[in-house]
Design brief:
The protein has about 250 residues and is mainly alpha-helical. It is about 60% helix and about 0% strand.
């Protein structure tokens, strides 16, 4: 598309060019990662090093993130007219989204804070932390903090902001391949910063341990049992085979 008189070149770069760069990196990066780094497609669990803090922080973070993702999908993907058509008023939607979004955001940030504290203070966990992990934690914290700040400042402290008339249509227009940067140009600063940080997070996503969020261990349902056999001669009825004698 071509920018109109109300849209400058920076808005076109931020809200037209950058989204497609981030989405391309997200898609191509995952394909590359899966083809050339299958063994690295893991969370690199550190539960063996420390479990007390992990038992607290991990559920808070993961369940909070799930609620945040579902809330964003509902607010960005479902048009405003659809919720009104089924009888959900704008005021009811606003109250519900603000309340649930704030609780989910606080839970996610609290869980993330515990996980970061654990990773920084437990020596063995810190030793297993890579540069990509550090970048991931910074990007996650920035995106979540900006999103929660936008919700609190605009919808709790302020008079409220209906992002479903600007940000949501812009989000959908990106996938229609006809993005409208003018919709984002007029959004509050915190919402724009939150959107930019999310785009950057999606850009680096495939190169971090976040890839595990897009997979499920379905293979565990059909894989054969693992059989463990004892090498203790007293527990078997036959003599051990050559090469399997106890040393």
């Amino acid at each position: 598309m071509t920018p109109d008189s109300d849209t400058d070149a920076l808005d076109v770069v931020l809200w037209v060019v950058l989204p497609y760069i981030a989405l391309s990196l997200f898609a191509v990066g995952h394909v590359w990662r899966y083809r050339y780094d299958k063994f690295g497609w893991t969370t690199r669990s550190s539960q063996l090093y420390e479990s007390r803090l992990l038992r607290i922080g991990s559920p808070l973070f993961h369940f909070g993130v799930l609620a945040v993702v579902l809330g964003h999908m509902g607010g960005l993907v479902i048009p405003k007219g659809w919720t009104e058509a089924i009888g959900v008023s704008e005021h009811s939607y606003h109250v519900m989204a603000t309340l649930l979004g704030t609780v989910a955001g606080v839970s996610t940030l609290a869980g993330l804070a515990i996980l970061v504290y654990r990773r920084r203070t437990v020596g063995s966990v810190f030793s297993a932390t890579t540069r990509n992990d550090k970048l991931m934690y910074v990007m996650l914290t920035l995106t979540l903090a900006l999103g929660l700040s936008a919700t609190v400042v605009s919808n709790i402290i302020g008079g409220g902001y209906d992002y479903r008339t600007t940000i949501s249509p812009w989000f959908r227009s990106v996938f229609y391949l006809y993005p409208d940067p003018a919709l984002m140009a007029g959004a509050p600063l915190l919402f724009r910063l939150h959107a930019l940080s999310a785009l950057l997070l999606f850009g680096v996503w495939p190169f971090t341990r976040l890839v595990h969020m897009l997979t499920a261990p379905l293979g565990y349902l059909t894989r054969p049992y693992i059989v463990y056999r004892s090498r203790d001669a007293q527990l078997g009825s036959r003599a051990p085979r050559r090469g399997w004698e106890r040393t």
